[in-house]
Amino acid sequence: MSLLLIVLLPLLGAVLPLLTERFGRNICAAVAVAAPLISAGLIISQLPAIFAGDIPIFHVPWLSNIGLDLSLRLDGLSLMFGLLITGIGLLVIFYALYYLSNKDSIGKFYAILQLFMMAMLGIVMADNLLLLIVFWELTSLSSFLLIGYWSYRSDARKGARMALAITGGGGLALLAGALLLGHMVGSFNLSVILSNGELIRDHKLYPIALVLILLGAFTKSAQFPFHFWLPHAMAAPTPVSAYLHSATMVKAGVFLLARLYPALAGSEMWFFIVTFVGLITLVYAAYTAMMKHDLKGLLAYSTISHLGLITMLLGLSTKLAATAAVFHIINHAIFKASLFMAAGIIDHETGTRDMRKINGLWQYMPQTALLAMVAAAAMAGVPLLNGFLSKEMFFNETLHLKSLGLFSWTVPVLATIAGIFAVAYSWRFIHDVFFNGKPVDLPKFPPHEPPPFMKAPVAILVVLCLLVGIMPNLTVAPFIDAASAAVAGAELEPYEISLWHGFNLPLLMSFTALAGGLLLYSQRRGLFAFYERGFHLDEKLVFEARVQRGVRASQWITNTLENGSLQRYVAWFVGFTLVMGVVGIWPLANMTGTRPLMPLDGVSVIAAILLIAGSVGTVLIHHNRLASLLLLSVVGLIVSLIFVRFSAPDLALTQISVEVVTIVLMMLALYFLPQLSPRQSGTLRIIRDIALSGAAGIGVTVLTWAVLTRPYETIAGYFLENSVSGGGGTNVVNVILVDFRGFDTLGEITVLALAAVGILAMLRTLQLPNTSDPRSWAREIYPPILAVLARVLLPLALLVSAYIFMRGHNQPGGGFIAGLVTSVALILQYVSSGLSWIQERLRWNYRSVAALGVLIAALTGCGAFIFGYPFLTTSFTHIHWPLVGEFEIATAMVFDLGVYITVVGATLLALAQLGMLTHPSRIKRKLTEEIA
Amino acid sequence: MEALVAIAIGVMTSCAIYLMLRARTFPVILGLTLLSYAVNLFIFVMGRLSTGNPAVIGSGETYPDPVPQALVLTAIVIGFAMTAFILVLALRARVELGNDHVDGNQEGRT
Fold it and tell me: Are A857 and A915 members of one domain?
């Protein structure tokens, strides 16, 4: 459990600073410190167990089906990283309090920082490869936010975007590689993967998986040729650089290499790729770092170079390579974080990071200078400092390399050359900044020492450099033991970290580097001139150009495919559906199934002929809209007859009443639309459309035929058996609607009400432009005979709808149909007597009526909760009604009442709103507005 | 009978799709309505054809499949709601844009 807390506490900590920011910066920082502090304490509390060789594991099944479990582990490697992450994180929180100005939101900074911390802890502690990748992506996202913290700065946004694109792309490759790895082993559990190294390396997919995973690691750890995002990420505030770009995020890549070392390392491919990518990065970045005039640029390239060194060590796979790599990870994190913080102080106090301007700061800030000088010396690998120890181990390992045969000597030579550059740029950091004459027009002059607390984190780290450098065995040795045991497994060779190994080759290499570096620095002017003459690529410009090109390309594709023409979309849609249908039907051996056919009769043939004639006629005369609408209503009528013919009285009743409402509605709308459709389509277009629609029709015919002639299995049996006993009704269709599938019906009436409200919203503010041009469809607007007849019919129609409603549970009928019948009866009044006449007599707000219906239905469903049943459980009982006889009453009927009311409300809302458009009040209002 | 039903549904679908490919809103809405008839019928007959025995317990020996019927019943009502909505949308578009082309553009794009 405490393992889970270690990871989750910073997530909680991400919320607190946002809440406490308004109480002031100091309180905000104090709160922000809490979560990492507890996390660090929890990690330390596990120390004895881990040093004793235990691996605490936390496991909760999560999405076990896809192999993703919430499992965490805390082995030596996680322990070491966990302490670096929380420890340096705490120092950075402290440092940022003084670094960020009052204008920057410190709460936002701490929140994202802790989010990042959570993700980073998740990476190092995940015991499941998929979980690791989830956290991996989270670091990419949160680092994007951190790099772009000063979001008003263009370079910050561009740098953040570049970092996200590169590391995010690598993350995708990593995901693919991890999936392959899981496929090989059959589990995403790290413990299983790590113990199956042999199986993985012999698998035929190993090369692909390895390349993909290495892509993920190399992009994250800024290895050549993906290194360029890191220098541009320096647009981030310096605390972010100190944290992400020295100690944590860029280390995630090498962490992954170390984590998967037992599973992936040991093959020729691993050796060649990892070693040489590391070597190239090491030398190239060390050379470039020397040439950068920007303080943070120098540190960024130096970081890349050191990451290359660690990568190379992991690639070498010699006896103590893993140990040296782990050791250097710690050392680099410590000295580089302190150097970044020192650079931040200098930037803060002088207003610039250009080393051609910052000179001679020793006079102005001697304490900072001293700290920075010690840290830079550690970076250079000066004896008595931590950098010296791991660098010498590195030199020693390069000498053990035998795989390259006669050319094996090239590696130590190149390593020494990189060492020379490292000394040169470290010395440049010291000499250029603190000595080398006077400052040259600094934006802030004179610079002075920062507040003591801003220096404290630097001082702590520098003291650590010294302690590790002088007494390695008393300080870091147990951590390195535990971590390298986790990396190298049982193959770990005994070793000894000590300052003095006697006069040997590694020592000679170290001193060559020191002397060579100083010499190189003295020749710097020539070097700079040489560098300036060379060819330089501005990665940001190239990257932005490529992004722009990508954007343009996708825009072009989108514009070409999506030109805004509905006709084209429908055509594509139909065409694609046709293709899918053909693909589906093609494998059928024969179209006709084994089901016995139903004999044909004359009435059906006549109905079918009418139906076909109505459909085709609608199309043929569609330019005359009113006429084609009338033909369409013939089709609707026949459809309802088909329902009658094939034993679906409920459907027939619904269809016929909907038909009436629909046609009235469409005529109303047509009143405001042009009466004729212009003949616009060209011959080619018409041929294309006939071909498409003809093919679709043939497809549907074939499909229907194929289905209808085949026997099938149905779930109907359940509903037929349980309708009376479970739902208390004999009309199975209605019982399904209000009981078995009541939840669906609730959704459906909600949609109905929403559609009506949508219509209301669209029509409420609509002003018709041509209300002065009424259509003369009838001589008499309100024919008296129709009006009188309709009024007489109204009570009768209401009675019928009540009857249909009451019997709906047992006989064809129900809320939907009854509601539609009521609507039709009321609409008839609107048609025959006019809106004003109704409005005087019926003062309903249809919007509220529709809402009331949905509410009744939902509350009926909730009523079941009172009796401890799930939502929408029905109960029913039989009562005796005088005159009527045995009568059954069910809660489903109340639900059905809700349906009824919703249908009435929604239908009339839509129609009345549409009818309202011609109402005198609308027109009058418009006139008064015009006058005003 | 099965062939007749299949052909009728096919013809309705054809006509509906042809109308949906027109350039003006009103024929497109007619097409949608026609298509919803066709689709409702199609789903309904997925329960196979049977005559003279409504799905009311006690009315006969065998019963037709009530599930497609229940599905289609709500589909008819929802179809009405959607038709009404899209009609009003077309109306609104006509007023706002000054024409009733489906792309809101008198000439059309293609």
Answer: yes
**Residues on chain B touching A808 (C-beta within 8 angstroms):** none
What is the complex's ipTM, to 2 decimals?
Answer: 0.94
Q: Mark yes or no for CB contact B80/A763 under 8 Å.
A: no
Choosing among A625, A656, A700, which should be mutated to test the B contact, i.e. which has the most B CBs within 10 A?
A700
- Which residue in this structure is represented by tokens 């003291």? A463
Residue A883, phi-psi category: left (phi > 0), alpha (psi -120 to 50), beta (remainder): left
Q: Nearest 5°: phi and psi at A95? A: -65, -40
CB contact under 8 A, B72 and A651: yes
Cβ distance of B64 and A646 shorter than 8 Å? yes
The yes-or-no verdict on residue A340 having pLDDT over 90 is yes
Query: A71: which DSSP letter?
Result: E
**A58 DSSP β-pair partners:** A72
Nearest to A724 among B7, B57, B66 (CB): B57
Classify burial at A690, counting beta carbons within 10 Å of its beta carbon; exposed 0-12, middle 13-18, buried 19 or more.
Answer: middle
Does residue A406 lie in a domain region?
A: yes
Owning domain of residue B67: 2-52+63-97
Closest in B57, B67, B103 to A564, CB measured: B103
A475 and A557 belong to one structural domain = no
Amino acid letter at A635? V
Same domain, A822 and A779: yes
Q: Do A738 and A822 belong together in one domain?
A: yes
Using alpha carbons only, how large is chain B's radius of gyration in Å? 18
Domain check: are A318 and A465 in the same one? yes
CA distance A235 to A360: 25
The verdict on B106 touching A (C-beta cutoff 8 Å) is no
Mean pLDDT over A16-45 rounds to 90
- Residue B108 is assigned to a structural domain of this protein: no
CB within 8 Å: A762 and B46: no
Report chain A's mean pLDDT, rounded to a whole number. 87
Given this model, what pLDDT does residue A764 score? 82
Q: Which of residues 11-70 of B touch A (CB under 8 A)?
A: 11-30, 33-34, 37-38, 40-42, 44-59, 63-67, 69-70
Strand A57-63 to A68-73 pairing? antiparallel
Looking at residues B53-81, what average pLDDT do you find? 87
Tell me the pLDDT band of A729, cut-offs 50, 70 and 90. confident
A505 and A530 fall within a common domain: no
Q: Round to the nearest angstrom and report the end-to-end CA distance of chain A.
A: 73
Range of the domain at A844: 730-932
| Whether residues A395 and A435 fall in one domain | yes
Chain A: give the shortest CA distance to residue B58, in Å: 8
Q: In sequence order, what are the beta bridge partners of A63? A: A68
Each residue's pLDDT tens digit, A411-462: 899 999 999 999 999 999 999 889 888 888 888 878 888 888 889 999 999 9
- Secondary structure string (H, E, C) spanning A23-49: HCHHHHHHHHHHHHHHHHHHHHHCHHH
| CA–CA min distance A98, chain B (Å) | 58
Does B106 map to a domain? no
Total tally of structural domains belonging to chain B = 1
Together in a domain, A303 and A429 = yes
- Least confident range of A317-321, A402-406, A845-849: A402-406
How many domains does chain A fold into?
3
What residues form DSSP beta bridges with A314? none
Residues of A in contact with B40 (CB under 8 A): 639, 655
